[in-house]
Amino acid sequence: MAKSKPRHRTARPVRRLVAFVDADVAKGGRVSRHQLTKGPESWQLERVGIVWARADERCLTPVGDELIDGPLVAVDTVAALRLV
Questions:
Q1: Which of the listed residues 20, 21, 43, 47 has the most CB atoms within 10 Å of its CB?
Q2: What are phi and psi of 75, to 5 degrees?
Q3: Alpha-carbon gap, residue 58 to 45, rounded angstroms
């Protein structure tokens, strides 16, 4: 009986979930007695967009997106990115 050659199995490509994040910021300042004063500059997040994609060695495949807006943009963005 002849021995058969061992089959070479190709490894499955490694697929990862990738997040592309785009943030819109606004320049902020301190408010004193209902007037904007010249104080230390600060930047506030206004809106964040996240595009989720599956990545392997050859391509990116978009799987979803979300737009985060509102008073707690930074907190909601961190919570959305932690879900992964």
A1: 47
A2: -65, -45
A3: 34
DSSP state of 70: S
Q: Give the separation between CA 60 and CA 11, rounded to whole angstroms.
A: 19
Place of tokens 């930047």: 43
Report, in angstroms and rounded to the nearest whole number, the Rg of the chain calculated over CA atoms.
Answer: 24
In DSSP terms, 28 is beta-bridged to: 42
Reported as a single tens digit per residue, the pLDDT across 12-26 is 667 789 999 999 988
Strand 35-55, strand 60-69: pairing: antiparallel
Cα(49)–Cα(68) distance, rounded to whole angstroms? 6
Rounded to whole angstroms, how far apart are CA atoms 59 and 66?
Answer: 21
Q: What DSSP string describes 7-23?
A: PPPPPPPP-EEEEEEEE
| Residue 51 bridge partners (DSSP) | 20, 65
